[in-house]
Amino acid sequence: MRNPALLDSRGPVSAALFAVLEEAPGGGSDQGEAFLSQVANAVEDVSDILIDEDLQLTLTTLYGLHYGEIGDWDPRWEWQPETIRARLRIEEAFEAALRERIPVLDLPQPEAETVATKLFHLTAEDSGPSLSKYLAREATDTQAVEFIIHKSIYTLKEADPHSWAIPRLRGRAKAALVEIQADEYGGGRPEHVHATIFAGTMRAMGLSDQYAYYLNNVPAVTLAAFNMMSMFGLNRRLRGAIVGHLAAFEMTSSIPNRFYGNGFRRLGYDEKVTWYFDEHVEADAVHEQIAGRDLAGSLAEDEPELFPDIIFGAQACLYLDGLTGSHMLTAWNSGTSSLRHPLDPVDPFRDLSESRITHGSK
Hints:
Blueprint lengths: L11 H10 L8 H16 L7 H15 L13 H21 L10 H13 L6 H7 L3 H15 L4 H4 L7 H14 L9 H11 L15 H15 L4 H13 L2 H13 L4 H32 L4 H27 L29
Helix pairs in contact: 1-2, 1-3, 2-4, 3-4, 3-11, 5-12, 5-14, 5-15, 6-13, 7-10, 7-11, 9-14, 10-14, 11-12, 11-15, 12-14, 12-15, 13-14
């Protein structure tokens, strides 16, 4: 677990949160009230919460109290009034910003087949930047490493945000979600858990697979994409959104992962690195059908009032994926790093000697 002393605050709110978490929970200290005041002021004054470094890091840390592995703070902080009140206040502004930016669409009847068709059309029409094609054809080794670091914020926790929805669903939708998640968690084989496979990718690229090791490096937009999943999954009222998010996530996974795998092979990496991407080419081609019809379609039929949120969650997935992709491509095309802090060239974890198909192949 990462030492919280190694985390950099990104403004007064995250600094205040780190100070609060160093105290014993339940004391109702002045620092707790000061933190809540900082949250209220920041939310009131923020110009764009989706890329606000301070608030997104704060939200990531607050969600980290539920997931674990960000800091070794007292676990009782997970359910303290200060942390929950702060999380809800930031979530309110975060959700409002997403809903303001994402258009409300005309929807067909909430029937499984039409719901799936709508989702497939929505993802097929996505005009976001093709990060996967860039990785396949143009990315340098340094850029490929940065891509993995961005991806690690979610993928070392892969499937966990969507699993919060399992107890919030019932019947057909619950069964479909469990079917997908069982594959994500390796189908009973620990070595096939997707997060574990990705950890192997990181090690083979000479990177640390410790969760949050690179948290200081990634920008707010990367944190926002993970925070959105967590917000959708942890709030029962947003169960439609997390289902829609998963559907869009699976529907836009298979082909891009084929490009990613090819890109890493082009750069000379072997199957220790590419296994993760190759695994998702086949798995997600199956998952997208289950997610579209059996999960999202069944949920819309059984709880039609959730249909608008299913579509909203799918749109939000595409929107934030587009923002993160644009951020990376804009930086790389201008010759700069996409990270807040580029990697130290003498990072002790960057030993590539065992990850190459042929040494020096770039």
